[in-house]
């Protein structure tokens, strides 16, 4: 059974790895519709962009030779994190493997950090400023990501066996934390400050070109999908436990992950760019408020 | 294939990229072109038209065109202005920072030949004069298209990109002449 799960996880990972650029293409079309534009000519536009970058010349600045290695390492780690989240989604019907979940969160953080280290090695001042800002945001957001994902999945499973209004409220609250944390982690407006294009001339990715840029963008899109799938898993947890072992739950989770990905894209289109420090400050206040409420709920006996 | 540079200093290894892969990249570029806007001392007339091209009305994303913030990401430079003497160093660095194939769209009367500033003490006289400096610096530009106009029309910019990528034929041929001074 274990070997079958691992094989299925590998199979789905290899299929899903091709999905994020396609979802990004759909998101670009949706964004264009909201802005009364036609948008890219096809849903495959992001794939065309990546394929073009793959055949462009690769220019590496002096002292940035290790960037290529670090970006590739980041991509491999992101692929492993995709495998981990698919494994969590497949095994959720019976119980939750918290070791895999913890490993998933570490892998997502590692993927972010490696991307930042790669850009910092280019020694470009814009890349360094962008990396500093991103590190600040990542440290702040990591708490929300850990608390949100662990609590929402745990409480989602508990809802089936021990239903109460308070459990439901805490589950929804932790889900809200997870949604915000994954939105911030996916680097969408206004939390894309590390690569805030108009302000920092592309920030952390300013020195990347050709294949390195292509792999970085692909890794970034893959991370976005991993986070969307994590939210989809957290949302479908109570239903997975109820309908276990219904095989329709996993495809529904995949469909939900695509919807979450596109919903984040719509939110990013509707939100404007704010001053760079406001995003971090607002996020800090939000986490302070919500986590205090969660602690109180825990105190009174959830 | 691999060129190592720090922007300002000369490349340590020269790229042999264009010799064997140029046609393959041009095929890919027909579906995806990332442009970098480079103002070389323009009056901002052409720059406003470039911004107009990127607005929802003209929406160049429908042709796979995207504005990027770094020349490292760009396939095409939208060059406006007569290239003032003060900007030469920075313009050469920006063009050099682009990975090959490098494409240039010289926009407006100033970009095409300097306009009324074709031979002043403070300007170089548009892209043709800059091209000589780029050649001296060992910076290869693979394709150039000139789009005249003062300011250049947004439709003309889009047409120029299509001509540059080989999707359309140029509407007119040009013959460069030298002005007689005095």
Report strand % of chain B.
Answer: 15-25%
Work out the radius of gyration of chain A.
19 Å
Order of helices and strands of chain B: EHEHEEHEHHEH
**Low-confidence parts of chain A lasting 5 or more residues at pLDDT below 50?**
none
Calculate the terminal CA-CA distance of chain B, rounded to whole Å.
Answer: 49 Å
How much helicity do the residues of chain A have?
Answer: over 70%
Mean pLDDT value of chain A: 83
Query: Distance between the terminal alpha carbons of chain A, to the nearest Å?
Result: 34 Å
**Which of globular, elongated, flat, extended, rod-shaped describes the shape of chain B?**
globular
Helix tally of chain A equals 11
CATH topology of chain B: Rossmann fold
pLDDT average of chain B, as an integer? 84
What would you say this structure looks like, in words?
The complex is a heterodimer of chains A (302) and B (182). By secondary structure, chain A is mainly alpha-helical. In chain A, 77% of the residues lie in helices and 1% in strands. Chain A has one domain (2-299). Chain A has helices at residues 2-16, 19-34, 45-55, 66-91, 98-120, 125-161, 165-185, 197-200, 210-243, 249-270, 276-299; one strand spanning 58-61. Chain A is globular and about 60 Å long. The model of chain A has no long low-confidence stretch (mean pLDDT 83). By secondary structure, chain B is α/β, with parallel strands linked by helices. Chain B has one domain: Rossmann fold. Chain B is 33% helix and 16% strand. Chain B has six helices and six strands. In chain B, strands 3-2-4-5-6 form a five-stranded parallel sheet, sandwiched between helices. In chain B, α2 (45-54) packs across α6. The model of chain B is unreliable at 1-15 (pLDDT under 50). Chains A and B meet through α3, β1 and α8 of A and β1 and α1 of B.
Sum this structure up briefly:
Chain A is mainly α and 302 residues long. Chain A is built from eleven helices and one strand; from the N terminus they run H-H-H-E-H-H-H-H-H-H-H-H.
């Amino acid at each position: 059974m274990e070997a079958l799960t691992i094989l299925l996880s590998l199979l789905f990972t290899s299929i899903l790895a091709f999905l994020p650029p396609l979802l990004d293409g759909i998101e670009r079309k949706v964004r264009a519709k909201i802005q009364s534009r036609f948008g890219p000519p096809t849903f495959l536009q992001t794939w065309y962009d990546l394929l073009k970058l793959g055949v462009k010349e690769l220019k590496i600045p002096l002292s940035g030779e290790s960037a290529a290695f670090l970006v590739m390492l980041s991509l491999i780690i992101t692929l492993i994190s995709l495998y981990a989240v698919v494994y969590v989604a497949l095994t959720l019907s019976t119980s939750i493997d918290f070791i895999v979940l913890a490993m998933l969160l570490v892998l997502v953080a590692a993927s972010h950090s490696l991307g930042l280290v790669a850009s910092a090695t280019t020694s470009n001042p814009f890349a360094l400023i962008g990396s500093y800002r991103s590190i600040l945001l990542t440290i702040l957001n990591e708490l929300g990501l850990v608390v949100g994902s662990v609590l929402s999945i745990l409480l989602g499973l508990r809802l089936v066996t021990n239903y109460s209004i308070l459990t439901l409220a805490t589950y929804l609250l932790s889900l809200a934390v997870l949604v915000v944390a994954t939105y911030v982690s996916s680097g969408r407006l206004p939390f894309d400050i590390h690569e805030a294009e108009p302000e920092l001339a592309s920030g952390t990715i300013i020195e990347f070109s050709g294949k390195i840029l292509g792999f970085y963008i692909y890794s970034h899109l893959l991370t976005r999908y991993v986070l969307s799938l994590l939210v989809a898993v957290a949302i479908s947890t109570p239903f997975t436990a109820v309908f276990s072992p219904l095989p329709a739950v996993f495809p529904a989770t995949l469909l939900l992950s695509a919807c979450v990905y596109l919903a984040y894209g719509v939110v990013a289109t509707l939100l404007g760019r704010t001053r760079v420090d406001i995003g971090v400050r607002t996020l800090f206040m939000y986490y302070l408020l919500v986590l205090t409420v969660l602690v109180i709920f825990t105190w009174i006996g959830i | 294939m691999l060129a190592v540079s720090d922007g300002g200093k000369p490349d340590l290894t020269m790229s042999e990229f264009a010799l064997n892969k140029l046609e393959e990249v041009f095929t890919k570029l027909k579906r995806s072109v990332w442009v970098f806007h480079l103002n070389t001392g323009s009056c901002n007339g052409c720059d406003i038209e470039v911004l107009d091209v990127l607005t929802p009305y003209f929406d160049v994303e429908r042709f796979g065109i995207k504005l990027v913030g770094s020349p490292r990401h760009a396939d095409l430079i939208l060059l406006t202005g007569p290239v003032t003497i003060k900007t030469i160093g920075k313009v050469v660095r920006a063009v050099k920072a682009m990975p090959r194939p490098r494409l240039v769209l010289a926009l407006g009367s100033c970009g095409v030949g300097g306009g009324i500033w074709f031979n002043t003490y403070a300007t170089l006289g548009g892209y043709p004069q800059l091209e000589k400096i780029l050649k001296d610096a060992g910076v290869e530009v693979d394709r150039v298209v000139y789009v005249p106009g003062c300011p250049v029309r947004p439709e003309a910019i889009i047409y120029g990109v299509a001509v540059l990528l080989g999707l359309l034929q140029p509407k007119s041929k040009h013959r460069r002449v030298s002005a007689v001074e005095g």
